[in-house]
Amino acid sequence: MKPLIKYMFVLFISMTGVFAVSSATEAAQIGIGTEQKIVQNPLELERQAIEREAKQKEEREARLAEEKRRAAERAKREAEEAKRVAKEKAELETKRLEEAAKQAEAARVAEAKKAAEEQTTPVAQPVSTKASRHVIQVESTAYTNDAADNGTYSGRVLTATGHDVTDSILYNGMRIIAVDPSVIPLGTIVHLEGIGDAIALDTGGRIKGNIVDLLVDTKEEAIQWGRRHIQVTVN
Predict the structure, then answer these.
(1) Between the CA atoms of 235, 134, 233 and 178, what dihedral angle is there, to the nearest 10 degrees?
(2) Could you tell me the CA-to-CA distances from 46 to 33, 38, 52 in Å, in that order?
(3) Number of Cβ atoms within 10 Å of the Cβ of 105
(4) What counts of helices (H) and strands (E) characterise the chain?
(5) Which of 22, 118, 187, 206 could form a disulfide with 122 if both were Cys (CB 3.0 to 4.6 A apart)?
């Protein structure tokens, strides 16, 4: 009886060991299989790939957006700098032109003063004698002291001799005429037919020969005067 019991005990132990080893091996195989299934699942891999691509796309878009922002800021700075430089150049050019205009105006005033100094002596004390009187026939026109029609000196209208006619067309109560100095010298007092005494204080580019240009108040008066032939008595 004892050997039978001993045999059954050994057989039980052996079967238990085989069962345990078989169970462990199967469990290990199930674990390995499960691990491989999780790692190599095509759907999971595709999902991960999609996520990576989406993340990379998002990073690229963010990078491009940042580059565009920086480029826009750089363009804005460059535009502001160009605008500032252009403004400075314009201001410098304006100052240069203003300075040139001031210098030109000063030169014109100096020229007018010089001409006045050269011509005012005979004007102030015109020499006239009855023996020197003579009558000439001239073609007479008219002009005004309008600044728009004449060159100005610091806003003032001056004759060729430097007399200021901005506010008056008279000189010591006499009318003013523009003449050809080779025919009627500047500073000469004359008598105009139909007008009275006048003094030669001005010249003009078109006043050549026997032409006398009478200074009047308005353009209407100049137009009304027109172009006429009159006698001029030179004193």
Answers:
(1) -80
(2) 20, 13, 10
(3) 14
(4) 3, 9
(5) 187
Residue 202 CA, chain-centre distance (Å), reads: 40
Nearest residue to 177 via CA among 146, 142, 208, 205: 142
- Nearest residue to 174 (alpha-carbon basis) of 215, 138, 209: 215
What pLDDT, on a 0 to 100 scale, did the predictor assign at position 216? 94
Residue 231: CA count within 13 A, CB half-sphere: 7
The residues with which 170 forms a beta bridge, in sequence order, are 175
Segment 210-227, tens digit of pLDDT: 999 999 999 999 999 999
Span 182-195, pLDDT tens digits: 999 999 999 999 99
CA angle centred on 140, ends 134 and 146, rounded to 5°: 125
Contact criterion met (CB below 8 Å) for 183 and 210 = yes
Enumerate domains of the chain plus CATH numbers: 126-234 (2.40.40.10)
124-144 pLDDT per residue, tens: 444 444 446 789 999 999 999
Please report which helix (H) or strand (E) contains residue 144, including its range.
strand 134-144
